[in-house]
Amino acid sequence: MTTPPGKPVSTAEQRRGPGESRAGDDAPAEQSAGSADAQPRPPRLRLLSYNIQVGIRTSTFRDYLTGSWQHVLPSRSRQFTLARIARQIRDYDIVAVQEADSGSLRTGFINQTEYLARSAGFGWWADRTNRRLGRVAQHSIGALSRVEPDAFEPLALPGLVPGRGALQLRYGAGNDAVVLVVVHLALARAARRDQLDFIAERIADAPHAVVMGDFNAPHSAPEMQAFFRRTGLVEPIERLNTWPSWRPARNFDHILVSPDLDVGELLVLDDSHSDHLPVSIDLALPPNAGEIIVPS
């Protein structure tokens, strides 16, 4: 993996509101009174995966038709939606973003991943433009992190139709390293199978792995089951429906983890500003990786 491409957000640029908490601020003391020999509690990390549909709020199937023009033309409401999303994500440590735009006519030439990072106070961000439609649209995925990862690499996913990608981040080194992959997989099953095989190869040697994003497939899909068998990753709760956001009936969005990572909570957020519901997870980290990922 390559080193990060240099997209830190300076302290002066971060917009942390008064009284806003960082991950770990409210963590209990490492030792309780009278237990001097107790082991320190492992640090915990809050992750979120969010398909933001380029800032288009959708609450009925009819909105797909009436709001379709927003996929090619700028909309005043889009920026209000992005501002709401920024407020929604600011208490997380790492956020995976799908269906963003890296700056085109429809977004007023605003890179949406960068906007969310700066508005929500993240110290580092990166994106990959998966499909370029000239000045009209720049389809992308993104990652936001409180601290800069030790390594980062944008990945092109295989498929007959180009335009799908992933982001691979590594925190820590050696046996405590955590490799995190942000994905947005294809609509066709055969392409998803090839893409999952590709990702399985990328994380084969990772001591601890997290794969998160919009898989466009339910937990029970054959290609997902094959991926679980090959990688050993698990989904702590198997059927949390995320689409459509107003009446969720399909579980397309997932956070998959190595079984040795202690998961405290996995849930779907009830409030969405997209056609997908965001998924969050709280997990304990390997001892040394925690010092790197969670800001003190």
Kindly describe this structure.
It contains 6 helices and 11 strands. With 296 residues, it is an alpha+beta fold. It has a single domain, classed as Deoxyribonuclease I, Chain A (4-Layer Sandwich), CATH 3.60.10.10. Strands 3-4-2-1-11-10 form a 6-stranded mixed beta sheet. It starts with 43 loop residues before the first strand and ends with a helix.
Largest sheet: 6 strands, mixed
Q: What fraction of the residues are assigned to beta strands by DSSP?
A: 25-35%
Low-confidence stretches: 10-36
Rg from C-alpha positions? 19 Å
| Strands, total number | 11
Shape-level CATH architecture: 4-Layer Sandwich
Shape: globular
In short:
It is built from 6 helices and 11 strands. With 296 residues, the chain is α+β, with helices and mostly antiparallel strands.
